[in-house]
Amino acid sequence: MIELFHLHKKFGDLVAVRDISLTVGKGEFFAVLGPNAAGKTTTIRLLTGLIKPTSGSARIAGFDVQEQPMEARRRMAYVPDFPFLYDKLTPWEFIRFTGQLFRMEEARIQQNGRELVRRFNLMDYLNKPIEGLSHGTRQRTAIVSALLHDPEVFIIDEPMVGLDPHHARVVKDVLKERSQQGMTVFVSTHQLSVAEEMADRIGIIHQGRLIAAGTPEELRQQSGQQGPLEQTFLALTALEANHTEEAAAKK
Questions:
Q1: What is the pTM of this model?
Q2: Starting at the edge strand that comes first in sequence, how are the strands of the sheet with 14-24 ordered?
Q3: What is the span of the domain harbouring residue 111?
Q4: Which of 1, 17, 136, 235 sits CB 3.0–4.6 Å from 162 for a disulfide?
Q5: Cα–Cα dist 160/162, whole Å
């Protein structure tokens, strides 16, 4: 459902993404880890078609996000780490507006929307202006809106930002349920515990490169670490940093 082919992105002299290739299958829950400025968010923006790659390509459900953007976007949903919402609308107005953008029938908007609103505990906020809501409530509104049209691919950047433990659990449960029902989930996170608990496979991006991808156990074997995922992550990123330094020294 998600295919990245030799993605490369430069901003002037800065190389943000370096030759990333990856396939994520239908119903797979894939989590991306990496240090700050590793290239995770840039990769997501390339995947969603928000920016153009310097070279390479990305496909959603078989559709090239640059050459067939409407077909690709019709099948996916994207929630950034700080989602944009129309502050003067209420959550319900924003949810309905999103459904209308995807040309959903009103009956389906009502059915899907009411179920998601109940699941994400938004009933008390439905008719209040978004501008007065907390970040966590805005985040839940964005996630509900993104799930409304039953996307085939769901992409989310730092899903737990601003969420209390109760609502973080709701997000985890809903995304895992949807994944088990066939929705492909692509999550970027700094929280190793989220990746270890939720993901079928984990990718690690460091200095713009995808340096490892596999199940938690496969990553442990690659790193030579058998403890918590944190030790695996630190070992793999340190190894990549050493290789980069050695390569630079040889030039």
A1: 0.91
A2: 14-24, 2-11, 55-60, 63-64
A3: 83-150
A4: 136
A5: 6
